[in-house]
Design brief:
single chain, mainly beta, Jelly Rolls, five-stranded antiparallel beta sheet
Length: 140
């Protein structure tokens, strides 16, 4: 996704306790009781949701773009196939996402996700949920 104008993909770094320094830019902290996944820190957010993806449905989630809202999708478990289109440039990108992958989707970038296996993700966004800022997009 390097150089893709509408979205940025990063793999969250993994840390083990005891930590040598505080984790301030997001990451997966492996702890005896289970992983602590820090999906945002220091970012102003107005919306947070848990998303479930069921592979048996073969249905896609998304299929739209936002004109105002920036959102981050962080995969917690399972695998997703993701498709992105930067509407202004026409650039297209597809990839498979797995646990620890986080994608920042900027305004004007159409996006859709389909489960390759049952999956869960956290969605965070800069703006409240507003149906008027969700414009359908046909990926063809």
């Amino acid at each position: 996704m390097s150089g893709f104008p509408g979205a940025t993909l990063r793999r969250l770094p993994r840390f083990r306790v005891p930590l040598s320094a505080p984790v301030t830019t997001g990451g997966i902290i492996e702890m005896p009781a289970g992983d602590f996944v820090q999906v945002a820190n220091g970012t102003s957010l107005r919306f947070v949701a848990h998303l479930q993806f069921l592979a048996a449905s073969n249905a896609s989630r998304g299929g739209h773009l936002h004109r105002v809202r920036t959102e981050w999708i962080t995969v917690i478990r399972g695998r997703l196939h993701a498709r992105y289109v930067d509407v202004a440039s026409g650039a297209r990108f597809e990839t498979d996402l797995g646990p620890g992958d986080q994608v920042e989707v900027r305004p004007g970038c159409a996006h859709t996700y389909r489960a390759l296996e049952d999956a869960a993700a956290i969605e965070c966004a800069t703006h409240d949920f507003d149906p008027a800022d969700s414009e359908p997009f046909d990926f063809g």
